[in-house]
Specification:
The structure is a single chain. With 202 residues, the protein is of the alpha+beta class. The protein has 3 helices and 10 strands; from the N terminus they run αβββββββββαβα. It has one domain: Immunoglobulin-like, CATH 2.60.40.
């Protein structure tokens, strides 16, 4: 029995190294067709307006998650550009797949993203004998709320409990969000510019 447990532990450690998770991004309005491919989010760049909200989820990538493999992970953003909150675990089809929302990373010493990055943590582990297939959603309905003009990078990291994440080693996926002024703000800026031109001419 001890030999079997040891073998399962070794298999779990090896499997976790080859597992993969990715980010999908959806517009907050479910009736809108996204102008990007939500199932191919690697290096995706997305443009939204300030004060708009995007819906994120974390799903299993092309490698799947083999038996006795898995991750704890953190989905985080630069605090200055926007914030990440919420998240639910959908009903997974196999009771041997164990997924959890671990909660906000801020103030939690077991979830240590790089300085200045905060968001939500979670975990997915495959305790069964079958592969978790590509596309399986393990964390759903995470909200990213844009706070100011500029670029925000959302990172998905794997993590070990209580160990600070190393961005060079632990990065699983990344999305760049370009946050632009709202149309009304742009219109007001344009009117202000016209006013300045009139003053100069007179």
């Amino acid at each position: 029995m001890r030999k079997l447990l040891a073998l399962l532990l070794v298999l779990g450690m090896a499997s976790a190294a080859s597992a993969s998770l990715q980010i999908s991004v959806w517009p907050s309005d479910p009736g809108v067709t996204p102008p990007w491919d939500p199932m191919n989010p690697q290096d995706t760049e997305i443009v939204i307006g300030v004060s708009e909200t995007l819906v994120l989820d974390v799903h299993v990538g092309p490698d799947g998650i083999p038996p006795f493999g898995g991750y704890a992970y953190a989905l985080v953003a630069n605090e200055l550009g926007g914030d990440i909150s919420g998240g639910v675990v959908p009903q997974l089809p196999d009771p041997m797949w164990d997924a959890k929302v671990l909660g906000p990373t801020k103030g939690d010493d077991t979830q240590l993203p790089p300085p200045g990055e905060e968001g939500m943590g979670g975990s997915i582990f495959n305790l069964g004998f079958t592969n978790i297939p590509e596309g399986t959603v393990v964390l759903d309905e995470v909200l990213f709320h844009c706070k100011e003009v500029g670029d925000t990078v959302i990172n998905l990291y794997k993590q070990s409990s209580g160990v600070e994440i190393n961005p060079d080693v632990d990065l699983l996926d990344r999305i760049v969000i370009h946050q632009t002024p709202e149309p009304m703000t742009l219109g007001l800026l344009g009117l202000g510019g016209l006013g300045l031109l009139r003053r100069r001419r007179s």
